[in-house]
């Protein structure tokens, strides 16, 4: 396959059980917010961004150009795990946009809950660096992208994950996720009036 062409179809284990909570994961700038909001609409659920779970000190640290450590991330991951538990208890479908870079972070978020699945937005550093260079109004310095890739442990086939190539346009990514997650077909809109 040509290196500059997206995969024709997603990779990864995939599964046909619609997730109650989908976690859109990947490095900074991979498209988690963009895709996560659209996936939440498609699932009829709510959208939440992991950035809103960070203690202010974490945001300040990243703004200042320093990557987070495991110690910085554990309380943040625990806060999200608690929120996931609440959503599942309430039967509230939800999409969480969260980098979830390491396997141990993902294990903490899933913690044996089969209703949680990941959508991994996979892309090269070059593609994402170009997108970050063009993004405006976000606190995350593009210079931290290198450290994001150094930390990233791409999900393995034993994880509940659908992997999508981010060179696809968002609409195609949502189509692939819909199919691979086994979401029910979208109801046609009733005629106006
Ligand atoms: N599939 C896509 N094709 C083209 N551009 C995209 C795609 N997905 C996202 N983008 C663009 O890439 C940039 C990064 O996307 P986005 O902000 O959603 O990433 P993110 O993973 O949420 O980043 P962060 O973790 O830093 O918050 C945005 O400018 C967005 O418009
Ligand atoms: O784990 C991390 O290093 C952080 O979550 C970062 O990924 C940022 O919060 C996010 O990418 C910026 O929005």
From TrEMBL:
The pathway to which it is assigned is: Carbohydrate acid metabolism
What are the UniProt keywords, alphabetically?
ATP-binding, Kinase, Nucleotide-binding, Transferase
Q: What class of enzyme is it?
A: transferase
May I ask which residue range the UniProt record assigns to the signal sequence?
none
Q: By its UniProt entry, which InterPro entries does this protein fall under? A: P-loop_NTPase (IPR027417), Therm_gnt_kin (IPR006001)
- Name the PANTHER family on file: GLUCONOKINASE-RELATED
Q: Name one GO molecular function term.
A: gluconokinase activity
Task: Specify the superkingdom.
Answer: Bacteria
Give the species this sequence originates from: Inquilinus ginsengisoli
Keyword Kinase assigned: yes
Any idea of its EC number? 2.7.1.12
Output this protein's name.
Gluconokinase
Q: Which SUPFAM superfamilies match?
A: P-loop containing nucleoside triphosphate hydrolases (SSF52540)
Its UniProt entry gives the catalysed reaction(s) as: D-gluconate + ATP = 6-phospho-D-gluconate + ADP + H(+)
Q: Which family does it belong to?
A: Belongs to the gluconokinase GntK/GntV family.
Keyword Transcription regulation belongs to the record = no
